[in-house]
Model the fold of this input.
Amino acid sequence: MMRHAYPYLAPGMTVGLLGGSFDPPHEGHVQISRAALKRFGLDQLWWLVTPGNPLKENPPASMARRVQAAREIMDHPKVRISDIEARLGTRYTAQTLRALRKSYPRVRFVWLMGADNLAHFHRWKDWREILDSVPVGVLARPGERISARLSPAARIYSRYRIPAAQSQRLARAETPAWCFLNVPMIDASSTEIRKRGGWSE
Done:
């Protein structure tokens, strides 16, 4: 785990934040991360391994196990596996973003998520604050493209959408700003892996 809650980031850097339970992490997470680094031109990308998802009923595997598994599967010099939410004591994405932006006022953070999350993003706590405070990059996953594009968040913020062909603009765009990317995806699911018994205590 990280030695300090707040690692050093140089002013002006662009850092993508991919939050999730990672219960377990899989190749789909890896592919999203590599695509985001390239298509959004990010300097770094952090996997924010959450203590627990407030929208899920069952608690995930231990933080230590998920962080270790994430480090084993995601091997990239620009990707950091982070347990910072547990260290900060934040439970919701908006809270985490407030803390990070306060600690790194000159760093440009980009919130990253799969299109499946955009489909129900309007259920997230303070979801408008998230879109209003940081750029958001959405990466399409199999079977979720249509429902995501028709979601309340996508409709309400439709005029702030940056075309995929201009995705390199996102990290430094004035907020609100979001970009939807169709990228080649691996059809992997943490839920399905658990159902198959490939991730047990």
